[in-house]
Write a structure and sequence with these properties.
Order of helices and strands: HEEEHEEHEHHEEHEEEEEEEEHHEE
Radius of gyration: 24 Å
Number of helices: 8
Helix content: 10-25%
Structural class: alpha+beta
Strand content: 25-35%
Shape: globular
Strand order of the largest sheet: 3-1-5-4-7-8
Largest sheet: 6 strands, mixed
Number of strands: 18
Length: 335
């Protein structure tokens, strides 16, 4: 910042305080909160002044911090008390963004997205809407956001959700797009609907006589993360087949059973990841929790995750910290 002084004789970049203040950009400030339900769907609200759905939140009042505004808006709009200290994203919205009437003189906006966490059915049931403005709430599949929200709002919400899954800190966005995209951003995960797999979970091998529809493997790297495949064309995430890469003999850890049959799951320790043979898929290393958050496993998801943790312990592997998923090189890797 230029030196502020009353010395009118000073040359160069010197400005009076009034001149310097007038030179600074004027922007609005807002805060919203991203909340999910146990199935990974995002809380949206409908309002009486526009057709698009929105994340809960709103404008930051004069003299108010963004975090305080987020807590106030959640209390006013949903009747929910809470604090939201964890940021997921900060978005710069340019002044020429479509949709703002000229008479509004929109100067641009800095919008903070806070993490509201995953709400239990009991907390969702405690929501109380005001007499006006908020007309309803719903939980939407992440891939459905572009059809329900303004385009910029949808981009921002998906970027914030990916930042939550990544666990690498808040994302810096410009018009909803990350300035430093992660692997999840580059691959566009969650842009298509997650495959729904809500069958009941059963531990152990599949009993004889039950029809096996598919088999997938929790294949562990030495650091405790697992191999995850992302379809480049759709961003869909899924586990590989048990024999997709060189690994120890897979141990059956359980299966899901639904009207389509049995979905069997095994666990093994990777010894290498071979050079890529299918360019249609990116191969990532992610924590088991991240795999679950990119999947739609229904109420039994926590049971499968518990079985995966037990298998990791049995394989004498560490519990990995949450870090952004790592995309493996096409040449593969050996340990």
């Amino acid at each position: 910042m230029p030196q502020l002084t009353d010395d009118a004789e000073r040359a160069g970049t010197w400005m009076t305080p009034a001149e310097y203040g007038a030179s600074r950009a004027t922007l609005w400030t807002a805060a919203v909160v991203l909340v999910t339900d146990p199935d990974g769907r995002i809380l949206l609200q409908t309002v009486d002044y526009r057709p698009d759905r929105m994340l809960p939140g709103g404008a930051v009042d004069a003299g108010e911090s963004p975090a305080a505004a987020a807590a106030r808006e959640m209390r006013e709009e949903l009747g929910v008390e809470g604090r939201y200290p964890q940021g997921l994203a900060v978005d710069w919205i340019p002044a020429d963004t479509p949709g703002f009437p000229a008479e509004m003189r929109f100067p641009g906006e800095i919008l903070h997205v806070y993490d509201g966490g995953t709400w239990s059915p009991e907390r969702i049931g405690a929501v109380r809407l005001p007499a006006q403005e908020i007309t309803g709430i719903e939980f939407a599949e992440p891939a459905d956001l572009p059809a329900l929200m303004d385009a910029g709002d949808a981009r921002r919400a998906l970027s914030a959700l990916r930042a939550r899954v990544n666990g690498g800190g808040p994302a810096l966005l410009e018009a909803g797009r990350p300035t430093n995209p992660t692997a999840l951003d580059r691959l566009g995960v969650l842009r298509t609907r997650r495959a729904r797999l809500h069958g009941t979970w059963h531990r152990g091998p599949v009993p004889g006589g039950l029809p096996v529809r598919d088999r997938a493997g929790w294949l562990f790297a030495p650091d405790g993360r697992v191999l995850l495949l992302i379809a480049r064309a759709t961003g869909a995430a899924h586990l590989p087949a048990p024999a997709a890469e060189p690994a120890t003999a897979p141990v059956p850890i359980g299966y899901r059973y639904d009207e389509q049959g049995v979905h069997a799951r095994g666990a093994a320790r990777l010894t290498a990841v071979l050079p890529s043979r299918d360019a249609a898929y990116a191969r990532l290393l992610a924590t088991p929790e991240q795999v679950r958050e990119l999947s739609d496993w229904g109420p039994a998801g926590h049971e499968e995750l518990a079985a995966v943790h037990a298998a990791r312990t049995h394989l004498c592997l560490p519990a990995p910290p949450r870090t952004p998923p790592t995309e493996l090189p096409p040449a593969g890797i050996r340990w």
